[in-house]
Fold:
Amino acid sequence: MPKSIAMQSLGEVADKMDVLMELTLEHLKACVDEGRLPQVYDTLMHSFQSTIKGTLVVCPMVAVIQWRNEIARFTAEGSTKVLVYHGANRCKDVAELSQYDFVLTTYFHC
Structure:
């Protein structure tokens, strides 16, 4: 996180996020009016796909298998790597974990 954001109060950051969202919506409305929304969508998706490396899903144990099945159902076979991060011998190597598109894990109940 850039230092300029980290040093601001939560309220200041929220205000800036509100302004950013408002500007984004105005821009998208203008793209719809101009018929450019499909091109803008494609550009945004390409940007997200090239910068987002993986997704961490934290859920109850009973939902881990459901998540794995749903990922398989909605993605092309072999197009994603999924790791179920559970058990005593979990990998602790960040470089190895970053090779996965989805890391599914659980949280503890007290």
